[in-house]
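PROTOCOL LOG
Step 1. Enter all chains and additional molecules of the complex.
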Amino acid sequence: MDRIPILKLGKALLVTIQVDMHDQLATALEEDLTNMIVSTGARGVLIDISALDIVDSFIGRMLDNIAAVSRILDADTVVVGMRPAVAITLVELGLSLGGVKTALDVDRGMALISQRTSFGHTDADDDGDEEDAGD
Amino acid sequence: MDRIPILKLGKALLVTIQVDMHDQLATALEEDLTNMIVSTGARGVLIDISALDIVDSFIGRMLDNIAAVSRILDADTVVVGMRPAVAITLVELGLSLGGVKTALDVDRGMALISQRTSFGHTDADDDGDEEDAGD
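Step 2. Run joint prediction.
Step 3. Record the structure below.
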């Protein structure tokens, strides 16, 4: 497989990381996500890492990259499903994932994204309600 | 990897098939899904196969199995993201996925599931509205 599927979920995009990431796959994912954010007008990116036993500096950098690009395109990045052991390892490695928001599961991640945008079943696009509420 | 992650999404469960399925993985997925339906009270199962180039009889049978077990546990199974070539191959192979509902993408699949249950942001459980609307 050379592409990780990106699912559109309302105004968010959902990616589930299930396989070992390598350079090419990570680059392809970053490109695909960037294109999808623009083409769908997504306001958030959810990245599920519940299948990952370990998050090394490579994955950490990829997550940071995705978050940085998404932010420029006005989309929040939320990492969901992190295992306890992964969280401990990240801290021990000194990787704090500073640019990335986290949530325990997809539902909470969606709630996080919907906090700043009018996400949901109403299709109200950009109606100027950008409150910057405690970002 | 020996488990495919299952994401809870409101009252639905979402599975993204990204890797080659083999016997053990398929069995584990069926078991995990069954347990998750019961433990979360999910009313629907969304299976995304947009990453699959080909769906053979093994995958077809797995999807049928999941649908059959889910139905007994009162959950709909919706396969989403099927590629055009996969659809053509399925018909040519005589695999019509009779027991499985399909939708073009996750959003439409969620809509399909929400048609028969009070899915959404209200947490109204079983309030007796089982209309059997043209199932």
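Step 4. Note key features.
Chain B touches chain A through 22 residues (CB under 8 Å).
Helices of chain B lie at 23-40, 57-72, 84-93, 106-116.
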